[in-house]
TrEMBL record:
<dbReference type="InterPro" id="IPR039375">
    <property type="entry name" value="NodN-like"/>
</dbReference>
<dbReference type="InterPro" id="IPR029069">
    <property type="entry name" value="HotDog_dom_sf"/>
</dbReference>
<dbReference type="InterPro" id="IPR002539">
    <property type="entry name" value="MaoC-like_dom"/>
</dbReference>
<protein>
    <submittedName>
        <fullName>Acyl dehydratase</fullName>
    </submittedName>
</protein>
<feature type="domain" description="MaoC-like">
    <location>
        <begin position="14"/>
        <end position="117"/>
    </location>
</feature>
<dbReference type="Pfam" id="PF01575">
    <property type="entry name" value="MaoC_dehydratas"/>
</dbReference>
Length: 148
């Protein structure tokens, strides 16, 4: 965990924030995400069929991406901010299937910090690594507005 102050955020440009702990994505979470998003494609929810074709069900790409706040909270703490606002993502790519029951973790680096909208815009490179695999599940650039 890296701890910094709001004023010292620019000092983190180029900093490797490290890796979060491993997080297992189980079928209950996949089914819940399918229910919340109405994405019931069989590769995510039909255990038998997906097992025959893909060796198991596959985690939704957007479910993987939605783990960003949970996993990123383990990597960076900004001591004197009032708010952190999610502004979105750039260049999101789902580069490998994450099978249900597997573990994923976040590797995050700071790409940019710029004054913006009364605060500082923090841009980070986010790589969702799959335990035991070379290719990550997802690579994305996260954009957050940090307010003092």
């Amino acid at each position: 965990m890296i701890r910094t102050s709001y004023e010292r955020l620019p000092d983190l440009i180029g900093c490797d924030l490290g890796r979060s702990s491993w997080f297992e994505v189980d079928q209950a979470r996949v089914d819940g995400f399918a229910g919340a998003t109405d994405d019931h494609q069989w590769i995510h929810v039909d255990v038998a069929r997906a097992g025959e074709v893909h060796g198991g069900t596959v985690v939704h790409g957007f479910l993987t991406l939605s783990l960003l706040p949970r996993l990123a909270a383990e990597l960076l703490e900004i001591e004197d901010m009032s708010q952190m606002i999610n502004c979105g993502t750039n260049r999101v790519r789902f580069t490998n299937m994450l099978h249900t029951g597997r573990k994923v973790r976040l590797h995050q680096t700071v790409e940019a910090v710029e004054a913006r909208a009364g605060g500082q815009q923090l841009v980070t490179q986010c790589t969702f690594e799959i335990e035991g695999e070379e290719r990550p599940a997802c690579v994305a650039e996260s954009v957050m507005l940090i307010l003092p």
